[in-house]
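Hi everyone,

Forwarding the result from last night's run.
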Amino acid sequence: MIARLQAYSLLEFSDDYTLFTDADCLLIQPVKLNYSNDILLLQRVDNFLINSNYPEFVGKKIIDVMPYLFGAICIKNSNNNNFFESLLSILEKLPQRFHRWYGDQVSLSIAADINKLFSFGYLDSDTHL
């Protein structure tokens, strides 16, 4: 998770959206977006009890701790702030177990709750999921 966010934080973005997906995603046509927000997130649709050994997750459902899918983020650099640097900073402060697994999604959830530097919008899950 650390390496992914370090690499993403080094990228330069334009005023057009850049779509970040998981490696197992396949795009079969161009993604057309008509939003004004700096960052577009995809909210989880399914909610289920997390089966994990992480104490932070015991008795919680996925939407409680990871409400967004990290594998579908669109970003444009309209205000010159680096969102992935913010996520990396949050992740580095989490327990080390998150550096290996779940840290990208947990840091995204935290950043969306506290970060006032960016304008968030939400992709339509019926179209983009």
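The longest helix spans residues 103-114.

Cheers,
N.
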